[in-house]
Amino acid sequence: MSVMSLLETRGLKKSYPQGKHSVEVLRGVDVTVDKGEFVAVVGPSGSGKTTFMQLVGGLDRPSAGSVRLAGEPIEALSDARLSAFRRQKLGFVFQFFHLLPTLTAEENVCLPRLLDGESYAKVAPAAARLLERVGLGARRHHRPDQLSGGEMQRVAIARALVSDPVLVLADEPTGNLDTKSGSIVLELFRDTVKERGQTVIMVTHDPRAAALADRVIRLRDGLVEPDDDREPAS
Ligand SMILES: Nc1ncnc2c1ncn2[C@@H]1O[C@H](COP(=O)(O)OP(=O)(O)OP(=O)(O)O)[C@@H](O)[C@H]1O
Ligand SMILES: [Mg+2]
After folding, report:
1. Whose CA is nearest to atom 25 of ligand 1?
2. Ligand 1 proximity of 46 Cβ (cutoff 6 Å)
3. To the nearest 10°, the Cα dihedral for 199, 204, 210, 216?
């Protein structure tokens, strides 16, 4: 095991009941990601990418196998400790943003830390800085319905970064953006996390997005495809 590895999954399996049988969606996934890496996860629709991200992020529990994140075997954490771990160590970017419609951009960005008990007065300056960083300084007080799709995407990215997470999990963060705003968002995202020494795992269908990553993990039928570019693990 590498000293620097931030994430290790071993024999990760997930099945869902299907009538009398079950469907095995992940069939033994072994992935290691080092601190500071920007990794893209690609694969055909239905290959298990979102399922993998949910297990890594502790949003769902595996049927078998283990996830070790920042030194913690997350299957050993209670639901309450796992929620706290998620809020403090992880940042999620979902395809459909999940912004709260009644809150402003700045309030949406603050939310993960408010839920963790910090005061608005303390968090707001950090949120404002991140919004500035993603080019939305002038849109801080807009609600989601007053923002474009690309702007909402950038708010969601700022929100994922506000807790200074060790790991950012992004599931098709450019899924509904045009090529140009997708590229702008991705470059901002990559530069921001590189500056902060964070680790990113990003699911994408977009070859240009995958090309920005340090490394690509390919899933097919619930397994990682061997990567020709890499030395086999010893
Ligand atoms: N809750 C569930 N119950 C039953 N089957 C599920 C459930 N969630 C996902 N699946 C199945 O697991 C498989 C993998 O789903 P997953 O969402 O991980 O795919 P994906 O690689 O993210 O695909 P896409 O690129 O379309 O987002 C699919 O065949 C899906 O039907
Ligand atoms: Mg998916």
Report:
1. 45
2. yes
3. 70
Residue 232 inside a domain? The answer is: no
The pLDDT of residue 159 is above 80: yes
| Residue ranges making up the domain that contains 161 | 5-224
User: Within a domain: residue 218?
Assistant: yes
pLDDT band at 25 (very low <50, low <70, confident <90, very high): very high
CA distance 96 to 231: 36
DSSP annotation of 225: P
Q: Give yes or no for residue 207 CB within 6 A of ligand 1.
A: no
16 lines ligand 1 (CB under 6 A): yes
For 122-155, how does the pLDDT look when each residue is reduced to its tens digit (9 = 90+)?
Answer: 999 999 999 998 889 999 999 999 998 888 988 9
Predicted local confidence at residue 87, as pLDDT: 87
Q: 175 CA distance to ligand 1 centroid (A)? A: 16
H/E run at residue 190: helix 179-195
The protein residue with its alpha carbon nearest to ligand 1, atom 7, reads 16
CA of 45 to the centre of ligand 2 (A): 7
Of 132, 177, 121, nearest to 155 by C-alpha is 132
Task: Report whether 191 contacts 168 (CB < 8 A).
Answer: no
Please write the tens of the pLDDT for every residue from 71-109: 889 988 999 999 888 888 999 988 777 899 999 999 999
pTM: 0.89
Any ligand 1 atom below 6 A from CB of 234: no
Residue 45 Cβ inside 6 Å of ligand 1? The answer reads yes
Total domain count, the chain: 1
CATH number of the domain within which 33 lies? 3.40.50.300
